[in-house]
Amino acid sequence: xxxxxxxxxxxxxxxxxxxxxxxxxxxxxxxxxxxxxxxxxxxxxxxxxxxxxxxxxxxxxxxxxxxxxxxxxxxxxxxxxxxxxxxxxxxxxxxxxxxxxxxxxxxxxxxxxxxxxxxxxxxxxxxxxxxxxxxxxxxxxxxxxxxxxxxxx
Length: 153
Fold this sequence. Notes:
Blueprint: E1 11-14, E2 18-25, E3 30-35, H1 45-60, E4 133-135, E5 141-143
Antiparallel strand pairs: 1-2, 2-3, 4-5
């Protein structure tokens, strides 16, 4: 085991990729900051021991055997017969055609109502309620001065 002394804000570099830094010193607790690549697992000792114990228990457990697949599961079902074509639509014979003397049917159109513009349909710039402001060095809001052209065209 390598033993090193480090003061507050001093670091140790491991393998050129892992940095261990002393972040805080309390009475009996040292806080360490660890900067490591994502592919390097970093755990506290008690967590690492728990992971190792769970992995060993998982290897020792006996599992029920996986059922074998039979050949019937791999056969494709017989495709159903294609749907029957719809019956043909009868076409009236020329002798059954509509007589030319029947008057045409007229349909009356519904009246068109007036459409009004609501506040929801108005552009957002027109709906602005508060004047634009800017902050002064003392933190107070002050209206932005805009010049309005005067006179006629």
